[in-house]
């Protein structure tokens, strides 16, 4: 393959995800829809060839020696990182596999290294399976935590990161992510809520919003009802909002969790959102409204990393892996968002 000239745009790298799930299928289908010359797939060549057959695409596959090689036109461009297991394509579809979990992590690590070396400009990740990841020897519960560890500084300090779920109607950023609900409540501190608000404000400003309007959800029913249903709003959430406002951030709340997402929803003419994003306290509190509005178009964005990372807002869908029924729309949206954020 031809090496890129210095003037060539650095590519977007799309990792295959768990080879036993729908990741490879939606990756090749999304590439076929997008056809961006800046998009490269990262993963096992044989797995991607199988995926082309599953989704019924008759496309030539170009095997790249380097992730930033220039690929021939109208060919699926695949870079296979060194060290992937030879029997990966032989793992049964729709089943948890330690081999697939380890391979998925290896692709993520390789893609991050390419971006850290300046050879790519953004990372798009297909879904991984947390149980397979653990079985494969990876001591991180998900993409977000693995990426955070890979982006630690020379002293081992992890960058503070947050998960944002977004679609055309709603953006939600989470204070807590992949922890048990009992632990999540303990993690809701003034410092953590304030940090989430600041990360959200900075990300929205980088995305082109001059004065982002940020709503902050409460934790308890009715946002605690003045302390009757819990005191986290009084002790931690409201003080964080007040501190954010002293920094010039337009943060408001805490609002009742059962109505704040409707107030932020932007779907004119019927819904004109009052806010540009909602800071939610827990994983399910924030993800349920975004996914209800359309999981097919949802995008997961990791905020706070020194790199751009997006992914589709769904999992490996083992139950339909290999059937060709997986919808690539969320992956297409993730590619387009990564491209816009790294332009």
TrEMBL record:
- From which organism does this entry originate? Roseateles chitinivorans
**Molecular function in Gene Ontology:** metal ion binding; NAD binding; oxidoreductase activity
InterPro entries linked to this entry: PdxA_fam
The source's domain of life comes to Bacteria
Keyword terms, alphabetized: Metal-binding, NAD, Oxidoreductase
What is this protein called in UniProt? Answer: 4-hydroxythreonine-4-phosphate dehydrogenase PdxA
Q: Where does the UniProt annotation place the signal sequence?
A: none
């Amino acid at each position: 393959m031809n090496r890129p000239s210095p003037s060539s745009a650095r590519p977007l790298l799309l990792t295959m995800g768990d080879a036993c799930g729908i990741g490879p299928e939606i990756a090749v289908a999304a590439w076929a829809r997008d056809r961006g010359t800046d998009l490269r797939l990262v993963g096992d060549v044989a797995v991607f060839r199988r995926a082309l057959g599953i989704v019924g695409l008759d496309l030539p596959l170009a095997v790249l020696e380097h992730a930033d090689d220039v690929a021939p036109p109208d060919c699926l461009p695949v870079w296979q990182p060194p060290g992937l297991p030879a029997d990966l394509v032989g793992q049964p579809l729709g089943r948890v596999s330690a081999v697939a979990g380890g391979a998925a992590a290896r692709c993520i690590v390789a893609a991050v290294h390419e971006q850290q070396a300046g050879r790519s400009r953004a990372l798009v990740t297909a879904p991984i399976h947390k149980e397979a990841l653990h079985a494969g020897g990876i001591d991180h519960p998900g993409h977000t935590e693995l990426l955070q560890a890979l982006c630690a500084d020379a002293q081992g300090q992890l960058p503070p990161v947050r998960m944002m779920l977004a679609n055309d109607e709603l953006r939600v950023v989470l204070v807590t992510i992949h922890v048990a609900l009992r632990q999540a409540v303990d993690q809701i501190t003034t410092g953590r809520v304030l940090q989430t608000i600041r990360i959200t404000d900075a990300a929205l400003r980088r995305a082109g919003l001059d004065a982002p309007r940020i709503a902050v959800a409460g934790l308890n029913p009715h946002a605690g009802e003045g302390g009757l249903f819990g005191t986290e709003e009084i002790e931690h959430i409201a003080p964080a909002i007040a501190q954010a406002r002293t920094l010039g951030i337009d943060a408001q709340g805490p609002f009742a969790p059962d109505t704040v997402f409707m107030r932020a929803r932007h779907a004119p003419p019927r819904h004109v959102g009052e806010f540009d994003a909602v800071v939610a306290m827990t994983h399910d509190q924030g993800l349920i409204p975004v996914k209800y509005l359309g999981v097919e178009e949802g995008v997961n964005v990791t905020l706070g990393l020194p790199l751009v990372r997006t992914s589709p807002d769904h999992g490996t869908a083992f139950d339909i892996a290999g059937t060709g029924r997986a919808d690539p729309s969320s992956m297409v949206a993730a590619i387009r968002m990564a491209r816009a954020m790294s332009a």
